[in-house]
Amino acid sequence: DSEQNLCASFACYHLPSLPYNPLENGALETLIHLPCLWPTSGDLSLQMKWDGKDFIIPLAPPIFVTPDNCIDVSAFIRSGENIFSVIHQNNMSDYLFVFLVHSPTSEQLSHLASCRSRHEEWVQSIHDLGKLEPMELTWKQSLSEVI
C-alpha cells in the first residue's frame, strides 16, 4: 500500500514567506504541510553520487518536482552513506533547504492515483484494439467504374 511507504524529498522554503520561522519554533516537522518555494534565478543545484556517477539536479527553479513542489530524491537513496551537496553562487540566506523523510502526502497520493488511472485506461485501449473485427465495406466500387 502506497500510504505505508516512505518518501525522501528535498525541499526549499523561502523564510520571509513562511508564517513562522521553523528554526526558532522548533517546528521543522510541520514543514511538510507548507508550500515549497524555490529561487527562480541564480546558479543553484543539488549534486550527488548515484551508481558511482555524479548527478546534478538544477534547482533555480527545479525542472521535475512532486505535486508538493519538492524534489523526490527517493531513487537516489541507498543503504549506507549518501552524499548530497547544494551548490550555489548567490546569497541563499533567505532560503531553508531540508531533506524530509515522510509518508506520501495527499497531493502525491492523488497524483499517483491519477497516473494509475491513465495507465489502466491506456492498457484497456490497447486491449480493445485487439478486439476489433473486420467490417465489410458499405460500398464497393469496381476498378472498371473508376476508370
Explain what the structure shows.
With about 150 residues, this protein is an alpha+beta fold. It has 3 helices and 6 strands. Strands 4-1-6 form a 3-stranded antiparallel beta sheet, with no helix packed on it. Strands 3-2-5 form a 3-stranded antiparallel beta sheet, with no helix packed on it. Strand 2 and strand 3 form a beta hairpin. The longest helix is centred in the C-terminal third of the chain and has 24 residues. It is elongated. The protein starts with 6 loop residues before the first strand and ends with a helix. The model has no long low-confidence stretch (mean pLDDT about 75).
Low-pLDDT regions: none
Strand-residue fraction?
15-25%
Output the structural class: alpha+beta
The residue fraction in helices comes out at 10-25%
Cα separation of the termini: 66 Å
Average pLDDT level: 77
Radius of gyration: 25 Å
Total DSSP E strands: 6
- Order of strands, main sheet, comes to 4-1-6
Number of discrete helical segments? 3
Largest sheet: 3 strands, antiparallel
